[in-house]
Amino acid sequence: MSARPSAACAWLHESGSVFVQISDENVHFVRCLMDNVFGCKNFIAIISFDKTGLQESTLIPSVCDYIVWYGKNKKTIKYHELSTPKEPGEKGATGYTLRFNQLGAQ
């Protein structure tokens, strides 16, 4: 199972990244495998995202999947923000409203 991640590591540029999508059932196995291949010092983040569709389970259904992010070299990783922070009422954020002030009160 480690052949593909090992090959990916060998072919990656020093600033390259690998992203693995996985369910909650096996995320711990992927972390162990990727720690062995890339080294735990090159772990960047686990990103959760909501699943779509009907969730069926006899217990609590899993409502999200995970993306495990590793870099070949964490010190030289390239990263670009996915979005720009916006303030309510500013250009591009006129549909937002501020529900809480900085102290947490409404």
Describe the SSE topology.
Blueprint: H1 3-11, E1 17-22, H2 27-38, E2 43-50, E3 64-71
Antiparallel strand pairs: 1-3, 2-3
Cα Rg: 19 Å
Report the mean per-residue pLDDT as an integer: 81
User: What's the total count of β strands?
Assistant: 3
Biggest sheet character: 3 strands, antiparallel
Strand content: 15-25%
Helix content percent band = 10-25%
Keywords:
3 strands; 3-stranded antiparallel sheet
Describe the 3D structure.
The protein has 2 helices and 3 strands. It has 106 residues and is α+β, with helices and mostly antiparallel strands. It has a domain at 16-52 and 62-74. The chain has a 3-stranded antiparallel beta sheet, with helices on one face. It is flat and about 50 Å long. The termini are far apart.
Quick structural overview:
The chain is α+β, with helices and mostly antiparallel strands and 106 residues long. 20% of the residues lie in helices and 21% in strands. The longest helix is centred in the N-terminal third of the chain and has 12 residues, at 27-38.
